[in-house]
Amino acid sequence: MPSRTTHAASSPATAINEPRATARSTTPERILDTAERLFAMHGYFGTSIRDIMQSCGMELSLARYHFGSKDALFQQAIGRRAAVISRQVIESLEAELAALQDKRPDVEAIVTALSAPAFAHLKSGDPGWRNYLRLLTQIGCLLERPDLTAPFYDQYAPAAARYRDAFANALPRVTRETVDLVQHFVESVFHLVLNELYAQEARSGARALTTAHIERMRTYLIRFAVGGIEAMVSSASAQRGS
User: pTM of the predicted model, to two decimals?
Assistant: First the structure.
């Protein structure tokens, strides 16, 4: 998941229990669900409030009444699940570290923990979470509008700090700058893999991504990230020794 510094084979330790659209959803929830989906598909700049309200079959005035502006609606959409995913990735990391029984963590355990919650949500098929994760992959397109992404970053900050410390503990001989780059690169690869999964789904014309395929992509992500980190650390060590 993205951390503010980048401007981030276990399962989530907590149940997946965030908002899911139902027949009894309130008007704001229905608007948020639709906004989440359209912002994820078309981005902030490619989606208007009119698009959102037409898609959910409501009057434009209701969006103004409940949210005030497009910016405020986007901020609520990107922040609505942030606390949950932050808690889940922290608990996932704690579970991985507990399994090591006080041994120094390795980068594979950390990357495995970081990827577990998001990929579990993907495999669950929950449309809300699939839309939300796709929305998060677009955060990098909003670097000039930090006000829009602050609701996510503010809530995800504890998880980002926890993983930064874990990487630093796993890589005691590298500089803090290298640790920050490691975290940045891992999160960037994570987003690229998620985007590729969504692209494969779009090209297929249907939800053709099986649980096995999603997990296979996660395995490739972990192997690629770990290999890249090892090469990066080795290069940094060689430069210091020269």
Answer: 0.84
Encode the chain (242 residues) as per-residue pLDDT tens digits. 777 654 433 333 333 344 444 444 699 999 999 999 999 999 999 999 999 999 999 999 999 999 999 999 999 999 999 999 999 999 999 999 998 887 888 999 999 999 999 999 999 989 999 999 999 998 888 989 999 999 999 999 999 999 999 999 999 989 999 999 999 999 999 999 998 888 888 887 656 678 998 999 999 999 999 999 999 888 766 666 55
What whole-number distance in Å separates Cα of residue 221 and Cα of residue 206? 24
Flag whether 59 is in a domain: yes
Query: Does any domain span residue 205?
Result: yes
Output the domain CATH number for residue 32: 1.10.10.60
Domain range for 54 is 27-77
Number of domains in the chain: 2
* Domain at 101, CATH number: 1.10.357
Burial code (b: 16+ CB inside 10 Å, e: under 16) for 190-221 equals bbebbeebbeeeeeeeeeebeeeebeebbeeb
Whether residues 184 and 124 share a domain: the answer is: yes
